[in-house]
Amino acid sequence: MGWSSANRIFNPIARALQDAHVPDDSKRKILGDLIDGLQDGDWDTEDESLEGFLDDPAVVLAFADHGVHLSDRRCCRAALADDPRAQLLAMRSDEVDEAEMVRALDAFVGAPYRERAHLLALLAAMTSGAVLAPAPDVDEPGWQILFLTIGDQQCSWHIAPADIDLFAFVEHVPAIDPRAQWDGHTTAEKYERIAEHAAELAQHCGPECAEMHTESGRCEIARNR
């Protein structure tokens, strides 16, 4: 089969499925079967058709199911934008430059760090004396360190510039502020402190105190014991 005849078969069918608003799963299956049949006829210009449908993840995945990718893996980025891990795996190629790999890595690690930041912001809102100070140990500008006192012991976390917006309510202080001086605790020690305090709260400040929380969210039993 000539290269042009295969493209002229695939492209109109794919567009017809798009126009008919066929569900993605069905579209992927139908086009996958079509790709398989055309490949049996020695279709060797599949990438030209793929190039025209990069805005449709179902079409891109139908090609991927049959081993068809663009050389620079733009197809993988289009289809896997919501799945950074899968995107990284698909991008493993000598033809993918370092900048693209860095972008994908940033997306992969950024999501859990944002979730972590949300939880830390909640913890800061529930802890008196929280402060945020510039991070002297990070060369990249904008990084901060969140200092909390949990169970009368210091705990601290680095906060990325992209997550600072979640901590607008926390007092920002200079790095020389006495409340922003690291006491030398390790990561393991930090979470040991948190575990000890959580166990203490569970014992002395359990569900029975639910109606004694103040407007700030602090527990009167915990504050007065």
| Beta-strand content estimate | 5-15%
Q: SS-based structural class?
A: alpha+beta
Give me the Rg, rounded.
27 Å
Characterize the largest beta sheet: strand count, sense, and whether it forms a barrel: 4 strands, mixed
- Rounded to the nearest angstrom, the distance between the terminal CA atoms is 83 Å
Rounded mean pLDDT is: 81
Spell out the helices and strands N to C.
Answer: HHHHHHHEEEEHH
Query: What proportion of the residues is helical, as a percent range?
Result: 40-55%
Number of domains: 2
Outline: elongated
What is the tally of helical segments? 9
Draw up the topology in text.
Layout: H1 3-19, H2 24-40, H3 46-51, H4 57-64, H5 74-79, H6 84-90, H7 98-125, E1 131-134, E2 144-150, E3 153-159, E4 171-172, H8 187-204, H9 220-224
Parallel strand pairs: 1-4
Antiparallel strand pairs: 1-2, 2-3
Helix pairs in contact: 1-2, 2-4, 6-7
